[in-house]
Amino acid sequence: MLLLLHMFSIFLLVLLGFYVFVADPRSRANQAFAMFISFLALWTVKDLVFWDFQTAGIPAGWWAAASFITALLMQAALVVFAAVFPDEKHVNLKPIAILFAPGLVLVPATLLGLLWKSAGLKEGILEIELSGLAYAFVIYVYVVFAYGAVLLWNKFRKESSTQKRQQLGAILWALFLTALFKTLINIVLPYFGEYSLLPYGSIFVLPGVVIYAYAISNFKLLSIQTALDQFRLFPIAYKVALSIATVAISSFALFQIPIVWWAFSEGPSFEAWRRYITFSLISALVPNLLLVLLIVRSISRPLQRIALAAVKVTEGGYGTEVDMRKSNDEIGILADSFNEMSRKMATDIEQLKSLNERLIRTEKLAAMGTLSAGVAHEVNNPLASISSLIQMLQRGDNLDAGTRDKLDTIATQIERIKRVTNDMMEFGRVRPAEKNRDDINGIIVNAVRLAKFDKSFQSLDLELELSEEMPKALVDPDQIQQVVLNLLLNSRDAMPNGGKLKIATGIVGDSISIVIDDTGTGISHEDLKRVFDPFYSTKSSATGTGLGLAVCYGIVTSHGGTIEASSDHGKGTSFTVLLPIEPSE
User: How far is 339 from 351, CA to CA, in rounded Å?
Assistant: First the structure.
């Protein structure tokens, strides 16, 4: 019965220590608690070996030495915990070093057996005669314990947080219960010659340890919600521990028990030990290989995949994702976070590229606008003089037919130059937008009406799909009408033999959308990247200057919107204008 109680005690201590430590391995308080539990488990193992397997007449000095030293180590863990809980502060080593200075003398004295005159078991009863130094050691252990308790008490009195006060209060109660049971069983009763409860000393401290763990875990130890949280996030440490425990217990049941039965079936002998050691070593290979396989499958392989994906990202493969089985441990969370980060990185980089292209285009427009206005102004002045002279010559009566044709040709070319310079002046003119709240659908209808004055435009199959739930936009109606009209005329030029033209409006997110689709000749992929650049045109030099779309781009961006072109070469082109929806006043 005592053996089972000791085994249960060890199992519970290991479970509590592991549970609390894994909950937050970086917490100094959790680390100190795990250290305390380790020393208490060592105390329990020491009692198990002594009380359950020690035979009468064997000296008990080793048990006494282990008891004194382990008791001091447990108080050391308590002091460290008291120093760091609940604020996770660094330990001030100076007072702790002074506090444990006497241990430099008492611990070696214990190891040398100077704390008792005799110690042993007689008919299952411990007989021990202590020296005066032993009582000094006991008093010293209680001083260390009292130091840790006072630290916690002072923090309890000064703590303003209700939650932390409750935790500190519960820990103080756990210390009180532990100290009470330990003092009663290990000191008071043995002093009066009662040793019957001494083998159960490590079991009586379990209630205090459970309270201790309950308080550290913020009163969530073994709660349903905590169990569900741990199920949702199943840490790798739990997986490894569960794998090791499962493999160890299984291998013990499957291999060790049969090997022991077979090896020692005829009694202990040299041959029996030789068989046991040989086949135990062989059987140990199977669980060890199984453990390696489980660890590789659970940790090494997923980490390798994440590392390879990270290398691809560093080499420019933005958007690379880790393809692995979903898991609810740290590696699963790491993989999901990496995939999300990679996707966002790819999206952000594309957005940065787009913004950079827009910025470069805007700078080009500004520079070309200034240059165009200057060139147009310088060209227009001499051009006006040349035009006047040509008109004077054309009014002469003595001109032959050849000369008159030449003058007409010159006049035609001058008019062409004027159109170019006027476009350049319009492109270079920076006119601030006069924004008003206006109906986008109405602006489009007016632009279509103006375009219909052109006979070639009338031959197109026009389709209007204007949303009836369009809010009014804060725009310059003339400028937006110029954009729409320019896009309509571009579509007309792309369909010299007729075709279908569709104009649609709607709401996309927080923007008003204007989409103009045609079934014209389309734009090649190479030209599509440059359609908004100044003086770049896919039309012949006789019909286009390459400034229309550049002007449209400048107007739309000055309104805080965007304009984009997409095309399937040979099948048509689509222009999409997005204008921000201004909140109503």
Answer: 18
Q: How far apart are CA 225 and CA 247, in angstroms?
A: 29
Burial of 155 (0-12, 13-18, 19+ CB in 10 A): buried
CATH topology assigned to domain 318-430: Helix Hairpins (1.10.287)
Buried b (16+ CB within 10 A) or exposed e, 408-429: eebbeebeebbebbebbbbbbe
Residue of higher predicted confidence among 379 and 550: 550
Superfamily of domain 433-580: Histidine kinase-like ATPase, C-terminal domain (3.30.565.10)
CA distance 313 to 311: 5
More confident residue, 88 or 133: 133
Q: Is the pLDDT of residue 140 over 90?
A: yes
Q: What is the pLDDT of residues 534-564, one digit of tens each?
A: 666 655 544 555 567 777 887 888 888 888 8
Provide, rounded to the nearest whole percent, the portion of the chain with pLDDT above 70.
82
For 449-454, what is the mean pLDDT? 78
The Cα–Cα gap between 135 and 453 comes to 115
Range list of β-strands (E), 269-414:
none
The label of the residue with tokens 């006991």 reads 138
The whole-number pLDDT of residue 584 equals 55
- Judged against a pLDDT cut of 50, whether residue 474 lies above it is answered with yes
- pLDDT category at 497 given cuts 50, 70, 90 is confident
- Judged on CB neighbours under 10 Å (0-12, 13-18, 19+), 468 is exposed
pTM for the whole thing? Answer: 0.53
Give the C-alpha separation, 201 to 186, whole Å.
7
Residue 385 burial (CB count, 10 A):
9
The structure tokens listed for 499 are 């075709």
pLDDT at 136: 92
Mean pLDDT of the chain: 79
Question: Which strand ranges, in their side-by-side order, compose the sheet holding 572-580?
Answer: 461-465, 500-508, 511-518, 572-580, 562-568
**Closest listed residue to residue 523, CA positions, set 509, 535, 503, 537:** 537
Distance CA 446, CA 461 (A): 18
Which position has the higher pLDDT, 418 or 523?
Answer: 523
Enter the DSSP assignment of 529: T
| 541, 542, 545, 546 alpha-carbon torsion, rounded to 10° | -50
- Locate the domains of the chain by residue range: 2-225, 233-315, 318-430, 433-580
Which DSSP helix (H) or strand (E) runs through 423? helix 401-428
Contacts of 259 (CB under 8 A, 6+ apart): 275, 276, 279, 280, 283
Out of 1.10.3720.10, 1.20.1070.10, 1.10.287.3510, 3.30.930.10, the CATH code matching 2-225 is 1.20.1070.10
Can you name the residues that pair with 128 across neighbouring β-strands? Answer: 119
